[in-house]
From TrEMBL:
Lineage, highest ranks first: Eukaryota, Metazoa, Ecdysozoa, Arthropoda, Hexapoda
Keyword annotations: Leucine-rich repeat, Repeat, Signal
Keyword rRNA processing: no
Source species of the chain: Psylliodes chrysocephalus
First and last residue of the signal peptide: 1-26
InterPro entries: Leu-rich_rpt, Leu-rich_rpt_typical-subtyp, LRR_5, LRR_dom_sf
UniProt cross-references to Pfam families, sorted A to Z: LRR_5 (PF13306), LRR_8 (PF13855)
Top-level taxon in the UniProt lineage: Eukaryota
SMART domains found in the cross-reference section: LRR_TYP (SM00369)
Transmembrane segments: none
Protein known as: Uncharacterized protein
Length: 365
C-alpha cells in the first residue's frame, strides 16, 4: 500500500505531505486533481525514502521522529516552501541540516527536546523569510546559526529555555527586521549578541531574567523602533547601552515589571523619536518617577500602563496597573539615582498586601 500510495502521489505532482515518523500517518494531496491519499500504521520512513518520495513537495509536516536531523536532511526537496517539525525528540540539529533549499520560505519547529542546534544549521537558503522555534529546550544559541540567508525577515526563539547566546549568532542575516527572544532564561544582553543586525526594527526580550545590559549592546541596531524588556530583573539602565549618536528611530520602549527605581537623567536624550513608554510595575523612587513623568509630558510621550504578565507563575510579582512610587520620607524631593534593596523589598511587600486595591485601578490597555 505504501508503494502504491507513493506512486500515485508522485504522479499527481505532490504538493503537501504530512509525515509522522515511527507511527506514521502520511497524507499526500495532488495539486492538479485535489485528491488526498492516506496510509496508516507505517512503522518508519527512512530519510532516503523521505527525500525520494517527497521530492516535489512544497509543504511538509514531520511529527514524532526520534532520529537526529542530519546534514542536508532535505537535500532532494528542492521545491519545498513550508517546513514544520513538531512533537519530536531528535536531540540534535546538525550543522547544515537546512541547506541549499532554493525555495524554502518558512521553518516552524516546536515541542522538540533538542540538546543543541549546531553552527550553520540554516545555510544557503536564498528565499528563507521566517524561522519560528518555540517550546524547546535549548541551553544556548551558537555563533553563526544562520549563514547566507539574505532574505531572512523574522526569527523567533520563544519559550525555549535559552540561558546564553554566544557572540554573533545572527551575523549573516542582513535583512532581519524582527527578533523574538521572549520567555527564556537569559540573564544578560551582551554587546556582541546583536552584531550586524543593522536593519533590525523589533526586538522582544520580555519574560527573561535579564539583570545586565552591557554598554553598546544596541550599537549595532541603529534602526530599532520597538524594544520590549518587560518582566525582567533590571535594577538600573546605563544610557551607554545606546550608541553615542542615540537611537534615532526608537519609538516604543517597555520597561514594565522590572526592579527599576530611577533612570539616568540623560536616558531620554538618546531617544529623540520616542512616542510610547511603559514603566509601571517598578519600585520607582517618588522624585525619580516625577522627573520621568515630567519629561514624558514635556515631549508628548505617551505613558502606557499595562499589567505585567509572566508565563512562569513562580516568578510573578504583584504589579499595579499604574506606576506607584516609594520614598524614604515625604520631604525627599530629589532623585538620587541610587538603588535601595531595602526600599525595593518594602515596595513589593506593600503591593502584595494591597494587591486587590491596585488591580482595581484603571488601565489604558
Amino acid at each position: 500500500m505504501l508503494s502504491k500510495m507513493f506512486a500515485i502521489g508522485i504522479s499527481l505532482v505532490l504538493c503537501f505531505a504530512l509525515v509522522i515518523l515511527e507511527s506514521v500517518d502520511a497524507q499526500c494531496i495532488g495539486d492538479r486533481y485535489n485528491t488526498m491519499l492516506s496510509c496508516w500504521n507505517i512503522k518508519k520512513i527512512s530519510r532516503e525514502s523521505l527525500n525520494k518520495t517527497f521530492e516535489n513537495c512544497t509543504s511538509l509536516h514531520i511529527i514524532n521522529t526520534t532520529e537526529p536531523l542530519g546534514i542536508s536532511a532535505f537535500r532532494n526537496m528542492k521545491n519545498l516552501i513550508h517546513l514544520k517539525i513538531s512533537g519530536d525528540r531528535i536531540g540534535l540539529i546538525f550543522s547544515e541540516t537546512f541547506k541549499d533549499m532554493p525555495h524554502l520560505k518558512d521553518v516552524h519547529i516546536e515541542f522538540i527536546k533538542i540538546g543543541d542546534i549546531q553552527e550553520s544549521a540554516f545555510f544557503n537558503l536564498p528565499e528563507l523569510e521566517f524561522v519560528t522555534i518555540i517550546n524547546m529546550d535549548i541551553p544556548f544559541l551558537r555563533r553563526g546559526l544562520f549563514r547566507n540567508d539574505p532574505q531572512l525577515f523574522s526569527i523567533s526563539f520563544y519559550n525555549s529555555n535559552i540561558h546564553y547566546i554566544q557572540n554573533d549568532p545572527f551575523y549573516d542575516v542582513p535583512k532581519l527586521k524582527e527578533l523574538f527572544l521572549d520567555n527564556n532564561l537569559l540573564t544578560v544582553v551582551t554587546k556582541d549578541m546583536l552584531n550586524k543586525l543593522t536593519n533590525l526594527e523589533i526586538l522582544i526580550l520580555s519574560n527573561n531574567n535579564i539583570s545586565i545590559i552591557e554598554n553598546n549592546s544596541f550599537y549595532q541596531t541603529p534602526h530599532l523602533s520597538y524594544l520590549d524588556l518587560m518582566n525582567n530583573q533590571l535594577k538600573e539602565l546605563d544610557w551607554n547601552m545606546f550608541p553615542t549618536t542615540g537611537m534615532k528611530y526608537l519609538q516604543e520602549i517597555y520597561l514594565n515589571g522590572n526592579q527599576l527605581m530611577y533612570l539616568p537623567s540623560t536616558f531620554f536624550n538618546k531617544t529623540p523619536k520616542l512616542e510610547k513608554f511603559g514603566i509601571n510595575g517598578n519600585p520607582w523612587l517618588c522624585p525619580c518617577l516625577r522627573d520621568i513623568e515630567r519629561i514624558l509630558n514635556e515631549n508628548n510621550i505617551r505613558e502606557l500602563w499595562s499589567r505585567p504578565k509572566s508565563t512562569d507563575v513562580s516568578v510573578q510579582q504583584p504589579s499595579p496597573r499604574i506606576p506607584i512610587c516609594i520614598n524614604r520620607n515625604v520631604s525627599n524631593d530629589i532623585c538620587t539615582n541610587t538603588y535601595s534593596e531595602e526600599l525595593s523589598k518594602k515596595y513589593w511587600k506593600y503591593l502584595e498586601d494591597y494587591e486587590d486595591f491596585f488591580y482595581k485601578l484603571p488601565s489604558e490597555f
